[in-house]
Amino acid sequence: MRPLAAGLLLLCACSGGGGGGDSNPPPPPLVTITQVSGLSPFTADCGGVGGTNYLNAEVEPHIAVDPLNANHLIGVWQQDRWSNGSSRGNLTGVSLDGGATWTTRAPPLSVCAGGNEANGANYLRATDPWVTIAPDGVAYQSSVSSTGGTFGIGSSNAILVSRSLDGGITWSAPATLIRDGSAFFNDKETITVDPNDARFVYAVWDRLINGGNGPTVFARTADAGATWEGARVIFDPGPNQQTIGNLIRVLPDGTVVNFYAHLQGDEDSVSNASLEVIRSTDHGVTWSAPIRISDFRPVGAVDPNTAQPIRDGAIIPQMAAAPNGALYAVWQDGRFSGGARDGIAFSRSTDGGLTWSAPARINGEPSAAAFTPQVHVRADGTIGVTYFDLRSDTADTATLLADYWIVRSSDGGATWRETHVDGPFNVAAAPIVGGAFFLGDYMGLASAGTTFLAFYTRTTPDATNRTNIYLARIAPATTAAADAAAARPADPSATSGNLDARAFENLRRARSERRVR
Prior knowledge:
The protein has one helix and 34 strands. A hairpin with a 6-residue loop joins strand 12 and strand 13. The chain is globular, with a radius of gyration of 22 Å. The strands form eight sheets. Strands 1-2-32-31-30 form a five-stranded antiparallel beta sheet, with no helix packed on it. It has a five-stranded antiparallel beta sheet with strand order 20-21-22-23-34, with no helix packed on it. It has a single domain, classed as Neuraminidase, CATH 2.120.10.10. The protein is an all-beta fold.
């Protein structure tokens, strides 16, 4: 597919007369964008019934770069999103030329993609795609696959993992890490390889009990995916509490750190929320007690004109590990505006997750809601954080304009430089899921050398093809260091007493929207 130039693109104008053209050609664009996804390969009669299906709509992408070949990329996303939960299947894109061209595959993680009783993937829908590539080049992707509504009579759901030994061209029948009926629902899994030891791959998720709590559940392989150990609880927050957004990162010394949001309150309310980590120094055999990072106060993004919500990443925080062992966490939070809107919060740990800095705002425009951050650290230690914001929106109630941005820091998060990646585009053209505009609870971000690779969803003007997945290659910034903006801590005097109420209601709604209806 044809690459599109974006960002800082300088055009050369040639003079008339006998001149031979400009002897100083313009520099390449700072951001180059390529469309990755195409039309759906699935038939219109698969995926079950109930809800509205958005044919050709791709959402919620994630990406990994092969440690053995920086031009080899594997991306995953949901294909044909349903209004009442999940998609017809999770697709995979493979690029061998750094993202210029892509080949699409459909791993057998749902019936639409070839799942059946024989291969262990007889589920009508799939969601929450995640991908990782081991240091030996073996790729793994995971899925929440389900049939029927959450806690519905006769429903079933599972965490599935498929493995590829040929760079993502073919994928194995999935391993079932856990399978449950209507009494439980397994949600928001992630999968992470040990970047130092290809034998170890870790999967983690929350397992909701109907009418009860939601502990963190963990499974691992210690033989590069040949077998998986049984799933087990590694943190139980107690009655009327749950974790969500569990995500593992592995430090250079092999320490495994699991990051998550901890929500308190029954299934109809949230009374408190915080961000925490637990640590393991023996490849996940035993785990520490929780270590608190911060209060968690996302108020959620909405259309400023109509108040219609955006299904954003408010309930899914993100974390990255640097080559030197530092950890960086990002999330949406309303504390920087007294609860008026979310900014992008940032906290760091330089001691393996034992202690954390006070949260600071790093998004570029404080007067506009910012949402769905993702964080990654390049090999040279440069931190990148991507996010959407609404600074370009207007008073026109027919549109909801958003842009995609990246901020970068080369000093551990003290100062940041912002670069425009894409937009504005109309979020109001996105699929409607649970009454909210939906692009995905998370996006993808990786790097190849000094280039960041943003893997994200944006809308199109075509109602029959509402969203596509794009890859933006973001070259090193040339902006002078003096142009960098300092990260800004929250002003306690600006915090409204309404912040907690708004954040807890938003988290309650976001948790409810994750269920398949």
